[in-house]
Amino acid sequence: MLSAKLFNITTIFYMASTVAFFGYLAGRNRYVGLAGTLLAWCGFAIQGVATGLRWKESYAVGLGHIPLANLYESVVFFSWSIVLIFGIIDLKYKYRVIGAFVMPFALLGMTWAQLYLPTDISPLMPALQSNWLTYHVLTCFLGYAAFAVACGVSIMYLIKSRSESKATDAAGGLLAMFPPTKALDELNYKAIMVGFPLLTLGIITGAAWANYAWGTYWSWDPKETWSLIVWFIYAAFLHARFTKGWVGRRAAWLSVIGFAATIFCYLGVNLFLSGLHSYGSLN
Amino acid sequence: MSVNERSLVQQIWDFFCSLKLTLFLLITLAITSIIGTIIPQFPNIDDRYWGTISTTKKALYDKLGFFDMYHSWWFLALLALFAINLISCSIKRLPHVFKFVSEPATTLSEAQQKIFPSRDIKLTASLEESKERLAAFLGTEFAKPVITPVDHHYHLFAQKNPWCRLGVYVVHFSIVVIFVGAIIGTLFGYKGFAAIVEGESVNSIEGRDGKTIPLGFEVHCDQFTVSYYNAPGGEGRTPKSFKSILTISENGHVVPGYKNARLIVNEPLTYKGFTFYQSSYGQASDPTTFFFTARNRETGRMEQVALRPGEQTRLSDGREATIVDLTDNPGEGLVATLQLWGRTGEPQVFRVFKDQPTLDELRGDRLIFVFTGTDARMYTGLQVSKDPGVWVVWIGCIMMCVGLCIAFFMSHKRVWIVLSPGYARIFGNASKNQPAFMTEFEALAEKLQNQNI
Ligand code: HEM
Question: What are phi and psi of B304, to 5 degrees?
């Protein structure tokens, strides 16, 4: 199928973009950085076409549904969202080097999906045949993607602030490329400010759907509970900045832990725990 | 009240208002919530689970409420503390914020003049005239200003979106609203289950706690059907839809609009506050009779054939048919093994697949069999709920989304102009998104500097 080929090409573009960003980090050549961004946007566009085609192909095989219904499709969409959020932040704030810490997430997702996940278009079980599926998955994954960007920025913050506190400039060359810690902190907050309302909306649409389909908006199913855990962690992050002694490194750690919990919510729950959202499981 | 008592009350109050407590609660709630995702929760505990844990562990978990941890006293206490923290914090801060919004600082203190970003403006006109022109400028370019005379000069103050400072409180209040909705649902709602065999009725449901809840009307199951995908990839017998046809009657009369009403997954049916959801299904009785159609390959004539195990049925072409075996394997579906024999020739034994109606054509016989069904009755499993608090929860959710957008994406912008004879200074401040505001502020200041004032 054509869409499958295009997804492979997308992966190659993301890989090239990641390599360019690493090169930018090491060599500080402005054009290499620009290439990283352009490659990411190209991959993004190709992936958009591929997603549209896969959607169309699903109708051709008689299963017609938006490509957000199994693990493969969701991982691919997750990567796409990460590139989108990164692209927007890059356009707005022009700290290109962040790409070196964000594009690897997108690349990892695409590679994993293309190499290891079953790519068949699968039929939609009755519980998933609803428009709520689209709203719910879309908002959740855009939120997750914003958290991925926040996590990348926080890792940069942690690296930079550690070297600053030690006042060594052994890695000075590389770190000089990083935005100042204050800007990183600000970006981390900005990304979470985008992600948090999206996650909130994701949880609410999930609850609305559950209420519509099963008559209970909240049943403490593991997936629901984990999304709430993630929500608590980012709520803690938002309040940390109003509390003395909780800014800077601690806030950055909260953001990293928040993303780890996000990934567990997304994948860990399906792989290790059981519940309603079994559609995401590997078999 | 003695000084000590006063300070104790004060201390308790400060404790409930503190953001450290908020952080502690948010993180504790996050960590403890994990327990219930690892340990199975009532009422979904598989009996086999008890064999996998030791009795001491079971006793311990039981004591700590881990088998229903989201309703355990300590988890509810954490949630209550969370609500108290939220409410006290709002009570403490809201009046300040309200005052800040309704009675804004129309003049700038020396201290603020040092912190806020500012730009100089040269004036050519007289003090009074400059004041008028500056006020007109702010009115068209930003917002209508308030003018306050201070000593020998004037302070002009203008602001946009002051009320967006309340966004955070909308978010916080929405959490309280959601809690209230959840409590209403718990106190006045029901959750239950009903299994109705095809052709039968129920007038009550079984509650979560095992109690019988009367409905006050009757629900009759007319029919239940499952359909499967038959697209590629659908061979694994993925169900496409489950469908119950229900009829609701009250006092012996069918309720208009509820005759043969359709109920499928994701499309619930509501009557008198009770909502019915298609949740499961199963076979209520073993089949005794199996139905087939036999089509004559040459004449195309169809004939209905009903077979019972152990009995013979005469077909129209004179042969005898009987059913010798029946299997229902996953991936294969219901399969009947039939035997046909006539006066001459060998008896034929062959299998007919219920899910593959065209397969028997390949056998080459005069009669082509299609397995159409059995007389086994199905039951439909319905989740039933009544939740009068759900609307309160949705209102809370909408408030939360609106509040979050206000808190994060709107900004209270303020501009002051401190005016002295021959000279003025413009100051700016925003509650959110400084960089964007600075761009706006600088454009404003530049425009002002280019004016003849
Ligand atoms: C015990 C619970 C809570 C307390 C006591 C509390 C208290 C506060 C306080 C005092 C502020 C600072 C307001 C300001 O001065 O601007 C704040 C900000 C905020 N709170 Fe809460 N909060 C609680 C829970 C939550 C939760 C669960 C949420 C989740 C939606 C939340 C969302 C926010 C948001 C979005 C802000 C604004 C943050 C920002 O502008 O960066 N709060 N909270």
Answer: -90, 135
Interface test with B, best of A94, A243, A253, A272 (most B CBs within 10 A): A243
Strand partners, B379: B197, B282
Cis-peptide into B40, omega within 30 deg:
no
3-state secondary structure A141-167: HHHHHHHHHHHHHHHHHHHHHHHHHHC
- CATH 3.30.310 for domain B104-161+411-450: yes
Task: Tell me the Ramachandran region of residue B54: left when phi exceeds 0, alpha when psi lies from -120 to 50, beta otherwise.
Answer: beta
- For residue A191, the CA-to-ligand 1 centroid distance in Å is 17
Host domain of residue A217: 130-283
Q: Identify whether residues A111 and A177 lie together within a single domain.
A: no
Q: Which of B33, B171, B176 to mutate to test the pocket of ligand 1 (most atoms within 8 A of CB)?
A: B171
**Is B26 within 8 Å of A120 when comparing Cβ atoms?**
no
Same domain? A109 vs A142: no
Does B265 contact A213 at a Cβ distance shorter than 8 Å? Answer: yes
Closest CA to A153 of A173, A180, A117: A180
Give me ligand 1 centre to Cα A182, in Å. Answer: 22
Q: Whose CA is nearest to atom 12 of ligand 1?
A: A242
Residue B208 CB contacts under 8 Å (≥ 6 apart), including other chains: B43, B191, B192
Residues of A in contact with B400 (CB under 8 A): 200, 204
The residue of chain B with its CA nearest to that of A234 is: B26
Per-residue pLDDT of chain B (453 residues; tens, 9 = 90+): 555 677 899 999 999 999 999 999 999 999 999 999 888 888 777 778 888 888 898 899 888 989 989 999 999 999 999 999 999 999 999 999 999 888 888 888 888 889 999 998 888 888 888 888 999 999 999 999 999 988 878 899 999 999 999 999 999 999 999 999 999 998 998 888 888 998 889 999 888 777 888 888 999 999 888 877 765 444 556 677 788 999 999 988 999 989 999 998 878 898 988 899 888 888 888 888 899 999 988 888 888 899 988 888 888 888 889 998 888 877 777 889 999 888 877 888 999 988 788 888 888 888 899 998 888 888 898 989 889 999 999 999 999 999 999 999 999 999 999 988 878 899 999 988 887 888 899 999 998 888 877
Task: Give CA–CA dist B246/B262, Å, rounded.
Answer: 6
Of the partner residues A120, A129, A214, the one whose CB lies closest to the CB of residue B233 = A120
A69, A104, A124 — which closes off a domain? A124
Question: Residue A119's domain is classified under what CATH number?
Answer: 1.20.120
Pocket of ligand 1 (CB under 6 A): A 235, 238-239, 242; B 19, 22, 25, 82, 85-86, 89, 93, 168, 171-172, 175, 404, 407
Cα radius of gyration rounded to whole Å, chain A: 19
H/E stretch holding B88:
helix B73-102
- Nearest Cα of chain B lies from the Cα of A212 at a distance, in angstroms, of 7
B70–A contact, CB cutoff 8 A? yes
